[in-house]
Amino acid sequence: MLKNILIIDDEEKLRGLLARIVKSEGFDVVEASDLKSGFKKLEHTAIDVVLCDVKLPDGNGVDFLEKIKSTFPLTEVILLTAFGKISDGVQAMKNGAFDYIVKGDDNDKIIPLLYKALEKVQLQRKVEQLEKRISDKYSFDSIIGKSKGLEQVIDLAKKVAKTDSTVLLTGETGTGKEVFAQAIHENSNRVGKSFVALNCSTFSKEILESELFGHKQGAFTGAIKDKKGFIEEVNGGTLFLDEIGEMPIDLQAKLLRVIETSEYIPVGDSTPRKSNFRLIAATNRDLKSESDAHRFRQDLYFRLNIFEIKIPPLRERVKDISPLTLYFVKQFSEKINRRKLEIDSEFLKKLEIYHWPGNIRELRNVIERSVILCNGDCLTQDVLPYEIQHQADNTSKIMSAFSMQSVEKLHIQKVLNYTKGNKAETARLLEIGVATLYRKLDEYHIL
Questions:
Q1: Residue 211 phi/psi, 5° resolution?
Q2: Which of 24, 325, 347, 407 has the fewest CB within 10 Å, making it most exposed?
Q3: pLDDT tens digits, 38-68
Q4: What is the bridge-based pairing of β-strands 307-310 and 76-81?
């Protein structure tokens, strides 16, 4: 653990005395006689705390403090002065000083202050490390896979992340919609602010309303005190509403008002409140069909559907199964303190031809189970669930010349030849999305 102290003072004897006192406590001491050489020390050595004189040959320590804090925000600064002036002390604290003490009068305070400043530095570093781990965990680089479909989805998410637009994530259950929501938040201008996730299918209408909007004491039976809702808590950050298609239709009107006006009213209250947040919603339903059937408000659907990102199911991302498997095997092996496991080719082949109705979530569960059941150093197909072990292998099946698949494959190949391999132009002529084209190229093994 670093415990480096920089002492900046032009009085050599006083600086030497102070250095000996600080060294006697087990700290490493670096010395400088002026601000210029002091800053060079900061640039070349990881300094925890600076003890800096206020009056120096090449400047004022109070002003220098601002430069230190802007360049090295985690370094704490204690200013020393021979003449205590209230105005200097006030300005020093405004500029970010940890403390401001008078030489001679406050010498006995220096060591206790150093320990307190170091505690703050260590806490700040832990927070920074934690924030970095969270940021790394939810960055776009942490999304595992190399399929074209996934790459296109990530590209779309990166583009919308920097805006404040509402995002609608669609796709089957288990495809990783919350992972994308977190990544969008971590790459947005709201990073560092709250990210609050709420699953709309988990609660009854009354509880969901209270969780979202909050309530006043006595609003209903059991409301024994005021409660903040998620909309208030997420002010400045991002609200992720999962399974929004399950939200009761009368609550949808209240949500629409918040989206359009940033105003909401807690349950049992009559005074509107404000909250500025970004909304990311997710659903496995077809909200357009739901709105056409009057099971979902059409105006809310249009408001949510500003930027839709459809996450493809795992069966359309076969190339992603291998890297995901490697990741989960490593994760669960470490979790139960197992040595590194090899993966048999037949084990992986069975995973790649399986339909995966539960998508990535199901794959994760299957790998966890397999790692636990494995007795040796290699994962083999006999530890897989029965339905995966005994599925039919259709990958080598020869298509009939009269089947629709055969006709489709031949037609795609013809159009590709016509466009000289231009995928975007091929998709346009076929009147399908580029992601769909890449999926079909993988499915039919068209290079």
A1: -65, -40
A2: 24
A3: 999 999 888 999 999 988 999 888 889 889 9
A4: unpaired
